[in-house]
Amino acid sequence: MEIISLKYPLSAESGLPGAIQPQVLAIGQFDGVHLGHQQVISVAVAEAREAGLKAAVMTFDPHPRDVLGQAGQNISCLTSLHDKLEQFERLGIDTAYIFHFDSRFATISPEQFVEEVLRELQVKRAVVGFDFSFGHLGSGTPELLSKLGASFMQVDIVEPFLIQETKVSSTRIREYIAAGGVDQAALLLGRPYSIVGTVEHGDGRGRTIGFPTANVTPGSNYALPKLGVYAVLFHTGGEVFGGVMNVGVKPTFETDLAEPTYEIHIFDFNRDIYGMKVQVDLLSFLRPEQRFNSVQELIDRIKTDSDNARKLVEPVLAKERAGSPTEGK
Asked: What positions does the domain Riboflavin kinase occupy (predicted)?
């Protein structure tokens, strides 16, 4: 998949390629690349293949709300830009356009977006979700997009994706994750909610009590799961392992941690992975974080948590290992 970074106004200096072939373009923020997003992208890919054109996608970085919202109120993401691009490629996209969203781009009119961006990119067919908006203050609608682009492109508007009469949306997925409902979030995402980050040195306390942990620092501003213990899959070096993860502030030992930590006890694992990039898939919420009265009480509970997590992880792990190669990063 070719990745092209663009900036408004389009020019060779701002990333516009010298030669652009006619293409089908799916447009959206696509945070999470959930089942609704996948439907939009799949329509674009299918139409491109049928017409013999390239299948492309346009996403925006940083998130428009980070630019238009209040300072310090950046929105948490379900997928980092890197995660998102991997999902695009998995869905069959040939070209991914990463459009730099800044204050200047935020002020262009819907007409300018159509004429100065989509026409310049040789878009012959645009595919958008039913709630897609564009242009200054989000004033453009899918219907307006179709009207403005009628002279050179066709617009397909994809209806909402429903599961049990509930619309799949990034907002609802964030709500599930914040409440610990990672299994419900997975149903809307079409895969487990994942966090990608780097293994860093912690306080080493887990090893002293017989449960060594990998301390993962997320690489992006991911949506924070409910504090507590989770059954997880741990991807590293192209392999996948089961584990149990605590997301929290370690109340048994700490009193002033400002940010939650992600500590994973990986089952049947004994390797040095410090500094490595890993992926953690959250499969199921086991219990809320709690403070224990003694270290022994904590050890006993970790044993119980590990046993419970193994029961949930083992069938998923067997299926992962028996199927296609893992997507560990």
From this structure: 188-314
| pTM (predicted TM-score) | 0.90
State pLDDT tens for residues 174-217: 999 999 999 999 999 999 999 999 999 876 666 666 688 999 99
Q: For the structural domain made of 169-322, what CATH number should be given?
A: 2.40.30.30
**CB–CB of 28/41 below 8 Å?**
no
What are the pLDDT digits (tens) for 242-257?
Answer: 999 999 987 655 555 6
Q: What are phi and psi of 20, to 5 degrees?
A: -120, 130
Domains of the chain, residue spans? 2-162, 169-322
Measured CA to CA, the distance from residue 168 to residue 124 in angstroms comes to: 28
**In angstroms, rounded to a whole number, what is the distance separating the alpha carbons of residues 261 and 246?**
8
Q: Do domains 2-162 and 169-322 have the same CATH topology?
A: no
Give strand pairing partners of 198.
Answer: 217, 277
